[in-house]
Amino acid sequence: MPTDLIALCVDANDPHRLARFWAAVLGWEPADEKDGVALVPTDDTGFRIRFLPSQEPKTGQNRMHFDLTSTSLEDQQQTVARALELGARHIDVGQRPDEGHVVLADPEGNEFCVIEPGNDFLADCGFVGALACDGSQEVGYFWSAALGWPLVWDQDQETAIRAPHGGPKVTWGGPPLPPKTGKNRLHFDIAPPADGDQQAEVDRLVSLGATRLGIGQREAGRVVLADPDGNEFCVLPRG
User: Fold this and answer.
1) Which residues form the signal peptide (predicted)?
2) Looking at the DSSP assignment, which residues form a beta bridge with residue 233?
3) pLDDT tens digits, 93-140
4) How far apart are CA 172 and CA 155, in angstroms?
5) DSSP alpha helices (H): ranges in 127-236?
6) Which residues contact 207 (CB under 8 A, 6 or more apart)?
């Protein structure tokens, strides 16, 4: 059976401050954890956001970012204004002047977009419309097989998947893929299904194209792998 996406993990120099920012932006509920702090979704998003302590500064652009949707131009403007008031800032990542989305960075520089109203691709999504990723077609196929989420877009080497129950889409923009420099600040935590075995799931993921990484992890029992594009992710023991 497919694995479960448990959390999107974010390395943070100040986990509690960053969690407060995103809780206010998304309207999610905070929950303390042994290692950091998490936000529990109040919508149909099927995974938490975990903020993990890190001393490393952010360098370069993240390979993942949230696309937040808008119901109207006024709604978009209100989301942007609220985020700025909470500590976000405008950034330039090469977007064109004629593009309708607004690109922001959270208080630690993590990019996110507030999408203009009328976006057809995200029309049936909630406020968290997508987790948009830099990535190859191959990695989209990998995560579709790993999570058991069907492809909802597969065209011109761009792919997207979505959980069967709904929630945000996870998208990969295809080539060119920017070079990876160091460990990603954002990664997935996944776990085998309730009756699944962690080692068997690791073996399955490796058979799909993942690679084992010989790096340390914060919590005992985690297995650190990389997807076909070299992005780290953790397989948690079930329980």
Assistant:
1) none
2) 188, 225
3) 766 666 788 999 999 999 999 999 999 999 999 999 999 999 999 999
4) 11
5) 137-147, 198-208
6) none
